[in-house]
Design goal:
Bound molecules: protoporphyrin IX containing FE
Helix content: 40-55%
Number of domains: 1
InterPro entries: Cyt_P450, Cyt_P450_CS
Distance between the termini: 45 Å
Number of helices: 18
Subcellular location: Membrane
Transmembrane segments: 15-34
Shape: globular
Main location: membrane
CATH topology: Cytochrome p450
Strand order of the largest sheet: 1-2-3-9-6-4
Organism: Carya illinoinensis
CATH architecture: Orthogonal Bundle
CATH superfamily: Cytochrome P450
Length: 491
């Protein structure tokens, strides 16, 4: 791909990544020098957590970036250190000390003290991108209020309309695809989840507008993960100064049209505006609504789409589970009139289906770890964590712990026949910051699995298991291309 870039584009790429390049070159030099003169030294202060903090600021940043840039994914950085140092280890990344918290006891200690002893770090690029009033950025009191006011449309009971709309959209799109047969699941699921969420949140269905909004949301999301240099041409500038601005304008105009009575819909935005006459504590301001609309779209699209892709891959690798799931789903469709859409009741009866969803989320670890910062010195399981250190709840390590999940690398939905130990199953986090879209994600995946297994079989066309480079959510580099085959009648 690089070969097709013009000289100017190459320069721009180098400009975009010049900070990373400088850190990389600098750390390679210093690391080579230090390791030549000292050999590998495992740094373990007396009674401290093992690990290598390396040089001030740089620490192991380069190794982390190199793992992120490889097809093994950024979790490889964590996996390797755990092999070298044991379950608990510390490292230094981008100038900050990080501890990866690998146990249920540690997870509980942090989740139960979220906002009090620990908090999400305030990252400027995050606030610039999703907005200062986003759930991801506001302080404790505002968080409680905003979350309470946002929550109702995402409760299971409120999702019945979403179930119908999503099911209809999915059936139409699968019908169209079946004629073409081959397609990339990730591309399909990204568009599908985006369109379905925009429909539910702001009732946008026009395809060209959806694609414009999607492009801008992707730009904002890229800006969140880039270095905050507000210089024209950088990813940061494009995301914040251009894409975010356009999105806020679109959302603002939408709110105006609805307030003037020119437009009205039955959706999330309307339910927020219905509170206009309520006291200030019982409604959201326009900027709170707009920042959180953007947050919901960004938090919901890539996560759900990746999970859908992994469900296809895992079920392809595990035919027994696929057959059992198909059996359950066919028994549900046989009991419904032909062409009828799914209801919440149908979803509630998908007992094996919901275990497939759970197992997919356990194994795929869409969010690998949950970052927090210690607000004061504390001790967890005898491990001292100092004020200002990053304590990352390592959900991946917990989900792959053989003491918690027998044979953890085996895809086995039936393991959820049994109750799980507290804090051992954390795909949606826990505590005051538990995923707001958890129910929506679950119903989306159940409907997807129902339509896929009850009407089709499929074949994965590319067995490559490499992960996409530079992605913070693990996804197959191939996007999981499949060929659909309509299920023969009589099945
Ligand atoms: C399979 C799909 C999904 C997964 C695995 C997932 C996972 C998570 C996790 C682990 C957290 C907590 C992070 C932390 O504690 O640091 C979270 C938070 C959040 N998620 Fe999700 N999510 C998914 C889908 C969605 C969807 C569909 C939406 C919205 C429509 C959504 C909206 C949010 C929001 C707004 C937060 C922040 C909550 C807060 O800080 O109070 N997520 N998600």
């Amino acid at each position: 791909m690089m070969l097709n870039l013009s000289k100017e584009e190459l320069l721009l790429q180098a400009w975009n990544y010049y900070d990373i390049i400088i850190v990389a070159v600098f750390s390679i030099g210093i690391t080579l020098f230090v390791s030549k003169s000292l050999g590998r030294v495992v740094i373990t202060e007396k009674g401290g957590i093992p690990g290598r903090l390396g040089l001030p600021f740089l620490g192991e940043t380069f190794s982390f970036l190199s793992a992120t840039n490889s097809t093994r994914g950024c979790y490889d950085f964590v996996r390797l250190r755990r092999q070298w140092y044991g379950k608990w280890f510390k490292t230094r990344l981008f100038g900050k000390i990080h501890v990866f918290v690998p146990t249920t006891v540690g997870a509980k200690a942090i989740f139960a003290n979220d906002f009090v002893q620990f908090n999400k770090g305030y990252v400027k690029s995050m606030a610039d991108a999703v907005g200062e009033k986003s759930l991801l950025c506001v302080p404790h009191d505002s968080h409680k209020r905003i979350r309470r006011l946002l929550a109702d449309p995402f409760s299971m009971n409120s999702l019945s309309m979403f179930v119908k709309k999503f099911d209809k959209m999915l059936c139409e799109r699968l019908d169209n695809l079946a004629a073409r047969k081959g397609f990339v699941v990730l591309d399909f699921s990204m568009k599908l989840t985006f369109d379905a969420m925009c429909n539910m949140l702001i009732s946008i269905t026009e395809l060209s507008l959806l694609r414009d909004i999607e492009r801008d949301c992707t730009s904002v999301s890229n800006a969140m993960l880039s270095f905050p240099f507000m210089i024209p041409g950088t990813r940061y500038y494009r995301g914040i100064k251009q894409a975010r601005k356009r999105l806020m304008k679109t959302f603002g105009e939408m709110i105006m049209r609805r307030r003037s009575g020119r437009e009205s819909h039955e959706d999330f935005l309307q339910s927020m505006l219905q509170r206009d006459s309520y006291p200030p504590n019982e409604k959201l301001s326009d900027i709170e609504i707009m920042d959180n609309l953007l947050t919901l779209i960004i938090a919901g699209q890539t996560t759900t789409a990746a999970a859908m892709m992994w469900s296809v891959k895992f079920l392809d690798d595990n035919r027994e589970a696929q057959d059992r799931l198909r059996e359950e789903q066919l028994s549900i469709s046989r009991n419904k009139p032909e062409g009828a859409l799914l209801t919440l009741e149908d979803l509630n009866s998908m007992s094996y289906g919901s275990k497939v969803v759970k197992e997919t989320l356990r194994m795929s670890n869409v969010l690998l770890w949950f970052p927090r910062i210690a607000l004061k010195d504390c001790i967890i399981e005898g491990i001292e964590i100092k004020k200002g250190w990053h304590a990352n709840i390592d959900a991946t390590c917990i989900h792959y712990d053989p003491d918690l999940f027998k044979d953890p690398m085996h895809f086995n939905p039936s393991r959820f026949d049994e109750m799980q130990k507290p804090y051992s199953y954390l795909p949606f986090g826990s505590g005051p910051r538990t995923c707001l879209g958890m129910n929506m994600a679950k119903v989306t995946m159940l409907i997807f699995l129902h339509r896929l297994t009850s009407a089709y079989t499929w074949k994965v066309d590319d067995p490559d298991t490499c992960l996409e480079k530079k992605a913070h959510i693990p996804r197959l580099r191939s996007g999981c291309p499949i060929t659909l085959e309509p299920l023969k009648s009589g099945n």
